[in-house]
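Session log. Operator J.P. requested a structure for one protein chain; no other inputs attached. Running the standard single-chain path with token output.
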Amino acid sequence: MKIVKVEAIPVRQPGDILAINDSAQDGIIIKVYTDEGIVGYGEVDSAPWVVKAIIESPVSHRICQGLANSVVGQDPFNVDSIWEKMYQSSMFYGRRGAVVQAMSGIDIAIWDIIGKALGKPLHKVFGATYRNKVRAYASILMPYTTEEAHDEALKWKEAGYTALKMGWGGFEGSNKDIKRLTEAARRAIGDDMDLMLDIGFIPNSDFQIDAASRILMAQSIREYNPYWIEEPLSPDDYEGYRKLAESTDLRIACGENETTKYGFKQLIDYCKVSIVQPDITRCGGFTEARKIASYAQTNHITVVPHAWSSGIVIAASLQFIASIPNGSLLEFCEADTPIRKELLAEDFHMAGGYVSVPEKPGLGIEINDEAIEKYRVDTY
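Structure written below.
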């Protein structure tokens, strides 16, 4: 079997894209074709047209070429060596960031091909099934008022979730705002439901973000027993993360903006975070995520993948979590966008607080190609 084509398809919801932290408003779907008719699907949670250029660019020189040049003609079962070839051939302009994110989508699609060729779901291809369902947490944006925060939190408790993450939005305010919103959410759901807080790291005109301010914030919300505090500092503030982790007994979680095992080694060894959150569509795909999870396991660190785009990343996350011993919790994006809700022929559903791991070959899902074509945008 040989790979004959890599296609990068930007998709975008109709109307305006809002400048909020909702990456399910657009996306880029990756299709990898083989000479035996098997097509693998992946996606990348990044800037769609940047990723498209990275994949489709022609050869400039040996270590500066578009990723498709490294993939076409390869046997998909050589997936590890394909990953290294992509990494080496983009060394001149890559190594981190958008290039590794683009690699992620291709890698996911290649693993989807492998699973389909073998007739097995990816968790079985990876050689382990630690769980056949995963506890899900509803993942939503934090409203800006305490009344809205209370009502929104209560909505997802009544929907049957046992865990909830609220993030960004109103948390872009002061520490006092963060405390008021957290208190409102906790009051709505009671003490028997886990509450995660995705604080975010975008400063506004009234305050700047640093470790000292976040230490005070953590102290002020400790009484509301957050399950974790997520990404409260800039992804590059390794020193700040270390100070924060050392100052509190609350779990500190981060990693959605990190790529490669090298970046996650820094988060684990130096920053001392409690939970790492690789996004399969951004960190380097399954090939790199499995190495990240293995290193985390040696350090007794829990892995909870970030997943906020289409159903493809939910499927990838489920296959990944099922296959690692230190996996826990599924981020179940509840953004009401067509990119999130329509790209699968049948969307995932939470039942009793859990989402089942797909058992069909590959990613275990059926893609709605009509929806991809409906929302496809080839120019911007």
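Operator note: The longest strand covers residues 3-12.
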